[in-house]
Amino acid sequence: MLMAAVLLSAGPARAQLYETPARHAMLLDVGTGTILFSKDTDTPIPPASLAKLMTMEVVFHALKSGRLTLEDRFLVSENAWRTGGAVSGTSTMFAELNSEIALEDLIRGVIVQSANDGCIIIAEGIAGSEEAFAQLMNDRARAIGMTGSNFVNSTGLPADGQTVTIRDLVTLTQHMQRTYPEFYRYYSETEFTWNGIRQRNRNPLLRMDIGADGMKTGFTEASGYAIVGSVARSGRRMIVAMSGLDSERQRAEEARKMLDWGIRAFEPHSLFEAGEEIGNVRLYGGELATAPVRLAKPLTILMPLTGRDTMRAQIVFDGPVPAPVEAGDPIARLHIYFGDELAHEAELEAAQAVGKGPIHRQALDALLEMAIGWIRF
What is this structure's pTM? Predict the structure, then answer.
């Protein structure tokens, strides 16, 4: 089978309408699913404290399934105290050795204070060890569609083989917001006090009065300053993920600038109605040579106020599609591009049933496919 594409409309391929010094970045409009900006989103990078987002997903999943409660208490081991506590010189909630802490306080310590001791206490309490907990993190990552990331510990502290991608971080953020709204609220807390020590949330977006309610910052020598942020403003929700910035200040400025641009420089535009036929895909061995395709749901995306001529759309399918097909069968996808960057994709279904063709038609298609196959090879 060949991945085939049918061009619907096109403008000249151009560079993106926005520039950022971040080495890796993505901006997503959640409501329409439109990727407004994308830059090197699939390159594996060290997660630093952004790994804690995945740690919290495991915790929230266990809470939602009833395996844990917010009142459950976890023991502070010497390993957690020494590796992630005050003596470690890393981000900590100053948990006391051999004390017990309620899970809700640990959650707030990890989210607000980026507490490494809190992460290790949780990992050991749930799975017995960080290594076993990291396996839970990877299992959950695959379950929600994170295909390019691998976790080795719960904290994001440097470790061989521990990587994430910007695309996966956006996928994770969407999942957290959609699946755990009752727990996502912790990400908007601006400060938390534990063991008599008050610490402010390190997410600079929360202090900017721009509708920010999450999520996390990170830093490594290898990949620079990073952030995953989300805002709800002007009836829209935007998620930004960035890495490879030079300073805390640049991270804050670039994240805000990109979010502001996403809110102000785009407007919703209806492209297709539900059930509207938008093209055809080639069939193999059918009573018809092609089948019309349609969208099951109406499609609205965000369009730039300027530079709309950079938009193009393609019907993409593994083809030719073998007959028979039934009306409603998913047989293709619609890809929408701004310049060279994929901005949106949606499933296309067959608009009508097409049965198998007569034997001579199937034989002819087989010969044609064989000939084309040789040419392709």
Answer: 0.86
